[in-house]
């Protein structure tokens, strides 16, 4: 049965077959993200040999590493972007992509996320935000909505969630977009744009975790979570006209920012050229 | 596949920039020049006293050689970026001091587990915590050995002078490349800021080694195998279409994660240990002075080795039969040689700028009938010849 599915799924050519089936729970949004990423790569006709995918720790870190068939670097908790920075400097002509979760990239890894955006290094980050620490058992995260229940906020969450996309945009990224797993086609388009932008790009994907999050917050079916996303999604243009009170608990979707700024590896190589020129070290 | 810094062009640049001859350099500068001569073309770091001049020298010199200096947001990011860059074919280095070294420990373990060559210079300063941030010490002997978690081998070298810092850094790179493993340089704040004359040799006089690369597709498909029986797998670099999977989790020879099979973990971790054990000839190094007829032995490392030699020379003039043993590679510790020497002497003194760390390694290899005594000094000031001589006289 399983074999038949793989043989008819057109994106299977991008997957590391010996690592399948995936370890993701039934109903997880991770599969949607992997599918969207594979489709974006396919539509842009990017040769996987020109891709390096880096991830950290947690469920979402597994989405592309080990499953995506490219050079993959599965790193320590929170540090994926810092590892990817070294990879990008070494291979400036390759597409370097980080796929990991909100806990990994925005909590323990928050510092690296901000500074990579500030540096504007040409890395594409696909941040899967499921509001929770899934793999460690459903603990409260910096993205958990105010009032939600988790294993470590059993009564209710009294902390306010981090608005990742807005924060990264403010830090200096070239491209930032946010979608949910209920907006697959828009998501694919944004991943394509992010992959083509020269500079730091972030695509935040609000994703369902029915097992750890939904179950404790009256949405134990994946479809219920998707309906929740659809009902509460507000396009970025419309959100501009709404008050903070009206936006409470809403998901702002769409392109948060799209701009051009000098990119880090290009500037680094330009600097080296200038220095070598200055000291008369260029090929004699 | 190419190791960056290996291009013929690099030789020309090095020759052009750094003429052989005598230079008056600071210890930290000597470390930086050693790295440049060894082929280091990627440095990611975070400033910390007393290591900062290493970063400053690299920031100034690397671009001239077409190399990359990155100032990262913290020490954790620095070693992470180094690992990433090493997998693209760079020889990489960072320098830090005690607190930064602590922050790097998790990813140092990652580098051990993923067999990533890198050089980490720890310019030891006085601790615990911020302690005397600008003063030298030798308190990280065991942080280098056991700082990260789990069962892991580590190689650490320790220079004893400014000139030695140049050569030991070159050697650290060579060991790291040959054994596909991180190597720690245990330097210290005293030598880091000491200026001495050092002789910079001709580039071609320096022996440089490069990591083993896969010879064919088959070898590239097993980035964690052992095709040559030396425990060192060839390293398929990123960007060459091998679709290599690298993870710090327990992995099979093909790189794929398997954390459930006890044999897989056993096989991997034992091989990583065996790789270090069976290649002792690559890294083992120590110096001996007057050990042939010694009845008292001084064992000392790093910055303390030189006042120790001074004290031994003076004691010899006084007619005391005292010898000196200096491990240059401190981990794995040359215990076999200490064991042999321990049988010939009646007393061993271990001077160091801490409250007794190397002495514990010595203790493991000598019998109880040998008088074993630490000569310890903390407070940020190095031991003097007189202080060590006094202790030698005390047991003479």
Structure description:
The complex is a heterodimer of chains A (284) and B (396). Chain A has 284 residues and is α/β, with parallel strands linked by helices. Chain A has a single domain, classed as Thiamin diphosphate (ThDP)-binding fold, Pyr/PP domains (Rossmann fold, 3-Layer(aba) Sandwich), CATH 3.40.50.970. Chain A contains 11 helices and 10 strands. Chain A has helices spanning 2-8, 30-43, 80-90, 102-108, 110-119, 164-171, 184-196, 222-232, 236-239, 244-247, 264-278, and strands at 51-55, 71-74, 95-101, 123-129, 132-133, 139-140, 175-180, 201-206, 233-235, 251-258. Chain A has an 8-stranded mixed β-sheet, with helices on both faces. In chain A, strand 7 (175-180), helix 7 (184-196) and strand 8 (201-206) form a beta-alpha-beta unit. The longest helix of chain A is centred in the C-terminal third of the chain and has 15 residues, at 264-278. Chain A is globular, with a radius of gyration of 19 Å. Chain B is α/β, with parallel strands linked by helices and 396 residues long. Chain B has 3 domains: 8-205, Thiamin diphosphate (ThDP)-binding fold, Pyr/PP domains (Rossmann fold), CATH 3.40.50; 217-281, no CATH class; 286-394, Rossmann fold (3-Layer(aba) Sandwich). Chain B contains 15 helices and 16 strands. Chain B has helices at residues 8-17, 27-38, 52-61, 75-86, 98-114, 141-146, 162-179, 189-192, 217-220, 262-277, 280-283, 305-317, 335-344, 358-363, 385-395, and strands at residues 21-26, 40-45, 68-71, 91-96, 118-126, 132-136, 155-157, 182-188, 195-200, 245-247, 286-289, 296-299, 322-327, 329-331, 347-352, 371-376. In chain B, strands 2, 3, 4, 5, 6, 7, 8 and 14 form an 8-stranded mixed β-sheet that branches. Classes of the chains: A alpha/beta (284), B alpha/beta (396). At the A-B interface, strand 2, helix 3, helix 5 and helix 11 of A face helix 1, helix 4, helix 5 and strand 10 of B.
């Amino acid at each position: 049965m399983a074999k038949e599915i793989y043989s008819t799924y057109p994106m299977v050519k991008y997957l590391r077959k010996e690592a399948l089936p995936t370890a993701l729970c039934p109903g997880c949004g991770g599969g949607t993200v992997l599918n969207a990423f594979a489709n974006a790569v396919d539509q842009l006709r990017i040769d996987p040999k020109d891709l390096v995918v880096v991830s950290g720790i947690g469920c979402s870190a597994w989405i592309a590493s080990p499953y995506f068939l490219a050079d993959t670097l599965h790193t320590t908790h929170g540090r994926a972007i810092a590892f990817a920075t070294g990879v990008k400097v070494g291979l400036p002509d390759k597409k370097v992509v980080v796929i990991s979760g909100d806990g990994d990239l925005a909590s323990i890894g928050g510092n690296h996320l901000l500074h990579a955006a500030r540096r504007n290094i040409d890395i594409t980050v696909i941040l899967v935000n499921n509001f929770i620490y899934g793999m460690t058992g459903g603990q409260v995260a910096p993205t958990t909505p105010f009032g939600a229940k988790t294993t470590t906020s059993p009564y209710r969450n009294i902390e306010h969630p981090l608005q990742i996309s807005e924060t990264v945009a403010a830090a200096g990224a070239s491209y930032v977009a946010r979608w949910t797993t209920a907006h697959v086609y828009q998501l694919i388009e944004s991943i394509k744009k992010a992959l083509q932008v020269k500079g730091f790009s972030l695509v935040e994907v609000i994703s369902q975790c029915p097992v750890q999050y939904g179950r404790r917050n009256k949405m134990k079916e994946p479809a219920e979570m998707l309906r929740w996303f659809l009902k509460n999604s507000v396009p970025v243009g419309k959100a501009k006209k709404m008050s903070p009170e009206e936006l409470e608990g809403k998901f702002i979707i769409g392109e948060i920012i799209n701009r051009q700024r000098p990119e880090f590896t290009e500037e680094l190589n330009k600097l080296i050229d200038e220095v070598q020129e200055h000291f008369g070290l260029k090929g004699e | 596949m190419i190791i960056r810094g290996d291009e013929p062009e690099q030789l020309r640049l090095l020759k052009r920039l750094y003429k052989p001859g005598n230079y008056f350099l600071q210890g930290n500068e000597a470390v930086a020049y050693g790295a440049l001569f060894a082929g280091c073309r990627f440095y990611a770091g975070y400033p910390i006293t007393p290591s900062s001049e290493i970063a400053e020298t690299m920031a100034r010199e690397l671009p001239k050689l077409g190399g990359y200096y990155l100032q990262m947001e913290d020490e954790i990011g620095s070693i992470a970026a180094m690992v990433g860059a090493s997998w693209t074919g760079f020889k990489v280095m960072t320098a830090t001091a005690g607190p930064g070294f602590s922050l790097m420990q998790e990813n140092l373990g990652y580098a051990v587990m993923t067999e990533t060559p890198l050089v980490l210079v720890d310019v030891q300063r006085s601790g615990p915590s911020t302690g005397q941030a600008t003063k030298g010490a030798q308190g990280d002997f065991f942080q280098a050995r056991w700082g990260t978690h789990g069962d892991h081998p580590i190689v650490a070298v320790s220079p004893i002078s400014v000139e030695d810092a140049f050569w030991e850094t070159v050697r650290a790179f060579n060991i790291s490349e040959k054994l596909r493993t991180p190597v720690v340089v245990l330097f210290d704040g005293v030598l880091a800021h000491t200026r001495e004359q050092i002789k910079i040799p001709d580039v071609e006089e320096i022996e440089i080694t490069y990591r083993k690369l896969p010879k064919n597709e088959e070898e590239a498909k097993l980035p964690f195998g052992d095709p040559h029986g030396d425990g060192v797998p060839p390293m398929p670099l990123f960007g060459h279409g091998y679709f290599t999977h690298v993870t710090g989790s327990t992995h099979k020879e093909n790189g794929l994660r398997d954390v459930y099979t006890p044999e897989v973990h056993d096989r991997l971790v034992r091989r990583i240990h065996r790789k270090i054990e069976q290649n002792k000839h690559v890294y083992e190094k120590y110096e001996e002075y007057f050990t042939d007829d010694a009845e008292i032995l001084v064992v000392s490392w790093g910055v303390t080795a030189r006042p120790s030699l001074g004290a031994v020379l003076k004691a010899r003039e006084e007619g005391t039969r005292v010898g000196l043993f200096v491990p240059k590679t401190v981990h794995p510790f040359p215990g076999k040689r200490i064991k042999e020497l321990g049988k010939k002497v009646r007393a061993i003194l271990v001077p160091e700028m801490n409250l007794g760390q190397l002495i514990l390694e010595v203790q493991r290899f000598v019998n109880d009938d040998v008088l074993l005594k630490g000569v310890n000094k903390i407070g940020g000031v190095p031991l003097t010849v007189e202080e060590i001589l006094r202790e030698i006289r005390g047991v003479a």
